[in-house]
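Archive transcription. Copying these from loose printouts into the bound notebook so they stop getting lost. Printout 1 of 2:
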Amino acid sequence: MHYLFLIAGFNAIFFALLLFQKKMARHDKILFCWLIYLGFYTGFYGLFSHKLFTAYHLLSASFVSLLMLNGPFLYLYISSLIQHSFRLNTGRLLHFLPFLLFNLYLLIASFFPGISEGIRLDHVEHASKPPFLFNLFLTLTVLSGPVYFLSSIQLFKKLDINIFNNFSSDTNVNLNWLRKLVYSFGIVWTMLMVTTTIHHIFHLFSLAFCTDGISLSLSLFVILIGYFGLKQKEIFPQEVIEEKNTYVTADKNKGKYAGIPMTEEELNDCAEKISHFVETEKAYLNPDLSLPQLAETLDVPSHHLSRVINDQFGVNFFNFINRYRIEEVKAKIGNPEFQNLSILGIAYDSGFNSKSAFNRVFKKMEGMTPSEYRKQIPK
């Protein structure tokens, strides 16, 4: 099994070097540091785990403290992807403070034999009682993973809101690969941490079983995060508008946009300008159309465009554009000229770039599937 850890460590370093050779965006820099850490962690475990936890008690405790880094790295990586204004400032670096405090405590304890003798992860007879602070830091290590996984889920909800308000399609920006990885790894990681806690308190299972399970899951995570992360592009390279709610009505937006100087007449004029352009130029046929792109074409500030769409049309940008696409699909389904095309072909011809997205949007807006809609049309 130790060879698996070495292979995972090699893969992590290899993926990090591949990242280093390309022009790295903000999220790439965080992923680079994360992969370097994961590579050395899994590699070191593969080489020395057989004697690390029995011969070097303080060092093994410090090694375990490294597990507190996964949560912050995950949280910062997702944040850098979904937040246009992301900056790695002092406030965000505080996520690593518990790890630093844990190791500072271990360093100080090393000068006091009475304390350091109780700092050990293996259970032996006549061992000193573990110090309170040591147990506290172990508890924080256990809780770190689940807390950051839940925080990451909240970030995904924020991403969904930004997608609905800035993109007409979520095919290339929904981070589904990272969602699935976070959900599955979060469940496995939490179960392993619970098992480790049971071992530490009740002396059930073996230490090797717990540490091997944690390192093995990290090894698999290394390979997946490196492979998919290497191909991940920046989602919000342009200006984005972050909304508090996915479905926003005009009444809810009155207070939110109070500081933007637009009169009622300007709102109506801008709404007519948007409708006229989208309908005559059929801008919705562009499957990658985004709010910043449309704002630039119309020479309207993005925040003004967002306000008009929400206020005057009562929908977000995603639903605004996809309503035009659905109407285009319905018109073509009922047009004999397009009878030679399949429903999916018509969908692609109408601005959709994903079968699953088309079916989901159509059923949501029409209350039936595209096939059911076609069957009810008189021949």
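Printout 2 of 2:
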Amino acid sequence: MENSPDRFAYRCLPLNIANAHGWTIACSSRFSVRWNGSDALEALEFVYENEADPPAISHFGSGILTFHINAIVTTEPGVSILASGPFNDPRAHISPLTGIIETDWLSFTFTMNWKMTSPNEWVTFEKGAPFCMIFPVRLDDIEAYELEVTPLDEESDLMKRYAAYSASRNEFNEKLKVGDPEAVSRGWQKDYFQGRDDDAKISHHRTGLKLSKPVFRGV
């Protein structure tokens, strides 16, 4: 996002919210890894900055890179932890795997795994680079929802609001194309960023998250 032209990616509020929706775990030291394309445990070749305490190893084979989480994560009953790679931070030649762990009963650690996707390509994790992102989820919540698909023309109020938005967006984009001073000054249509729908201000709109900082007791 930092490297997007004029930091354009920060205009996307859904990306910003997702990036803040959890806590990251950082790599303890720099290392590089390369996969030879086979499923063997020995298929991953490592170059460690700290060989005495390697941040990640080959444990499962199949080109999977495994980080051990050096902590036991506990949650209240009914709450699990979703673990994945840092959101919106793609890496070449490797992809994070996502898991949900029942940390409301767990008394041991879990692993964060990445799948190498390109043989014979080096991938480097720098010291301090996030390799895992965690946040709480309630499994009962997803089971409580029922997915319903309805034709838009059967939702008259929603259809009316969508048509008004679509017309407004098309008009704004056309003004941008011809260099309309007001449109150029605004830069982009900020309805979602400002929490506006059909000219109404949404009271529960969020523009950011404030997560609690970790509390270290006796460490």
